[in-house]
Amino acid sequence: MPTTNDPRVVAVRVLVPDADAGADYHRQPTGHWITDTKIANPMSGWPEYRASRTSWGIGAMGTFVVEVETSDGQVGIAPSIGGPPAAFIVERHLARFVEGKPLTVEGIAEAWDQMFRGSLYYGRRGLAINAISAVDLALWDALGRSRGEPVWQLLGGAALDELAFYATGPRPDIARSLGFVGGKLPLPAGPAEGADGLAENVALAATMRDKCGDPDDFFLSFDCYMSLDVPFTLDLVEAIGPYGFKWVEEFLPPDDYWGYAEVKRAVAASGSGILTTTGEHESTRWGFKLLLERECADIIQPDVGWCGGLTELLRIADMAREHGVPVVPHGSSVYSYHFLVTRPETPFGEFLMMHPEATEVVPMFAPLLVDEPVPVGGRLRVPDRPGFGVELNRTLPLARPYPH
Question: Which residues are catalytic?
Fold first, then answer.
């Protein structure tokens, strides 16, 4: 319970890369595999947007960082995607629900509920939830710093000695040599490319299975990034059956709960053994309630920086446990690690290969964050530094565009 001795939040600030200084952090450079290789996506139906996700603006929003300052002199930090628009939402609207709150678990939960309800008329998903997520994570970071404890300790303590990871990127063969337990490939072609596109996908599956060896020793999956339809997904699952893929991920737009349920039923009935997964672009407990109750996926994959923050991820995970569905969060580095290490039922986490060619292990949020841990040999011990254990790189040019 809150007491009069608990510190309080005294200020909320939002920083973005200083455009006047030419800064643009956590946006991939030209030629990076994430943006400038052929990856099936929601815009792949138009040939002019097919070859590069940069062409339609995947990085247009940019990064923002929330700082939460407390009365005992701590500053919690957390980034997300949303740039200046998210900065405006936090500074000019959401901050009023956070400043003055006691820095307790109960105070964080109340701030979350007020931010969400206060933004219902324009929010519920997308940019507004990204903004709430970053504020929530910064609050948890500040709470850990104030108490001198890592966030995983605030959640009840670590249940695992270390985390194992699969790697997302176009070179799972290299990921295997680096010690990862599996690899998730970006799918290159979608329905607009018809039979030729399906053949391209199957050829990639065959090549990478040959390079990566026995599926029992190293699993492969396809990340379809909201790009397919039900018939193409079913054709894909059937065609890659011989190559021992573990799952196909986010193959439909996130709001097509009916389609996800249809695919899951059909794939289960086929006896292929392939799982269906989704949730990277889903948000809040209500969105995941639909996924779970309609039996849309074998695994759900919320992103803690987009689904509503740690407060909401905990609610989602409790609900998923009741349905017997594993939670394997999407990326998010330390902000996911502190959750994962408390969940013994989760077999592995995701590590996004941020190196331009996916051939080396580099920190996800570099150069924005300092002291960000990375897996070694595909495994990682979550540090016991207070909060999430990372610092903002204050040597970078950062601006506060909308002070309140």
Answer: 330
